[in-house]
Amino acid sequence: MTALLEVQDLKLGFRTEGGLARVLDGVNFRIDAGQVMGLVGESGCGKTTLARAVLGVLPHHAAQIDRGRILFRGTDLLGADPRMVNDRIRGRAITFVPQDPFTSFSPVFTVGAQIMDIMKWKSPRRPADNGGARLPALLRPYPGARRRADRAAVLELLDAVQLPQPERILAKYPHELSGGQRQRLMIAMALLTEPDLVIADEPTTALDVTIQAQILGLLRRLATERGVAVLLTTHDLGTAYEICDAITVMYAGQEVESAPIDRFFRSPAHPYTARLLASLPKSEGTVAGIPGEVPSLLRPPGGCRFNPRCDRAGPECTAERPAATRRADFHLVRCHHPLAEAAP
User: Fold this and answer.
1) Phi and psi at residue 95, in whole multiples of 5°?
2) Among candidates 245, 223, 206, which has minimal Cα distance to 37?
3) What is the mean predicted confidence (pLDDT) over 322-338?
4) Calpha distance 276→212 (Å, rounded)
5) Residue 247, beta-bridge partner list
6) pLDDT digit string (tens) for 23-73?
7) What is the dihedral of CA 258, 261, 266, 270, to 10 degrees?
8) C-alpha dihedral sign at 70, 79, 91, 71
9) Pairing of strands 246-251, 36-40
């Protein structure tokens, strides 16, 4: 099966005053059409950077891509015409749900004005420019018939994300809405262009627990009903369990394991994955942390970057990064000393 999105051997760094921070180190990753994939790991492991590399919104003055490809439906986004990517891919075929709904809207315009501005340029009913439109953006028309069709689609989707009285919602300013309402709006806006892939960057971080559960259930339902693939970045394994079909684990800029959700929780293969699962709070109230800390990406360790914190590490773990080995269908692990297979 051809992947909807496939990242191949992506090596990326950021230029800083202290030198080059090696943020992604030969990352390989894939999502199939209609799949909900969780990207998990501690803070600073490269999850958000990978998501932003896919979107093509890395800071050009600092980001340095040394090698790799990002294939979306077979097209390498890193080598494609930027005008084509901006017109057909970013914001249309691939959309984004940010983690903070409180800073994602301008406070001086109504919600409706901001959503319709997006629809003017990214609506699925708008013909692709193909790089040929020469009128300045502000002078390009918004045909009345398309505007009415776009507004009807907006109202329908606001109802689908369980926002009551959509017309009144569009007339409000962002400060008049709760955090849960704003995050529902962000999900609706990500789906308005009828995308193939939605990237959700820790979309429930700023919400309380009860609203988190509602948002996750909504995202899962809409993905299932509309056949949209979702890349969910999170450090919360409970969140990943609730919504994901599969999980890929990142550590210090390297992917270390990828598995379907049932195998991930039943039979982890990488020591880091096992440590993450052991860190979940127990019923008796105990928590087992992971000794040490994520290494500096300015001077990362050689080989498998988890080796300084791993009780199974040997000389070969520092000498070279292990190749990906297949444990079962769709279960890949990069480790010289993987854990034994769990009993069925």
Assistant:
1) -125, 175
2) 245
3) 93
4) 21
5) 38, 259
6) 999 999 999 999 999 999 888 899 999 999 999 999 988 999 999 999 999
7) 20
8) negative
9) parallel
Length of the chain: 344
Residue type, 43: S
**Angle, nearest 10°, between helix axes 144-160 and 111-122?**
120
What sign results for the dihedral spanned by CA atoms 138, 141, 144, 146? negative
3, 61 Cβ separation under 8 angstroms: no
Q: At what angle do helices 111-122 and 179-191 cross, to 10 degrees?
A: 20
The neighbour count for residue 9, using CB atoms within 10 Å, is 13
The residue type found at 192 is L
Considering only the C-alpha atoms of the chain, give the largest distance between any 2 of them, rounded to a whole number of Å.
68
Residue 341: strand, helix, or coil:
coil
pLDDT of 94-105, one tens digit each? 999 987 777 889
Q: Which one-letter amino acid corresponds to residue 311?
A: D
pTM for the full model? 0.90
For 275, which DSSP code?
H
Taking the C-alpha atoms of residue 262 and residue 64, their distance in angstroms, rounded to an integer, is 36
Q: State the number of CA atoms in the 13 A half-sphere of 124 facing the CB.
A: 13
Give the CA count within 13 Å in the CB-facing half-sphere of 163: 26
Print the SS3 string covering 37-67: EEEECCCCCCHHHHHHHHHCCCCCCCEEEEE
Give the strand pairing for 331-333 and 325-328: antiparallel
Q: Are 241 and 210 in contact (CB under 8 A)?
A: no
- 158-172: per-residue pLDDT in tens? 998 889 999 999 999
Mean pLDDT of 4-15: 96
| 4 touches 196 (CB < 8 A) | yes
Domains of the chain: 5-101+196-249 (3.40.50.300)
The pLDDT mean for the chain works out to 89
How do 75-76 and 325-328 pair as beta strands?
unpaired
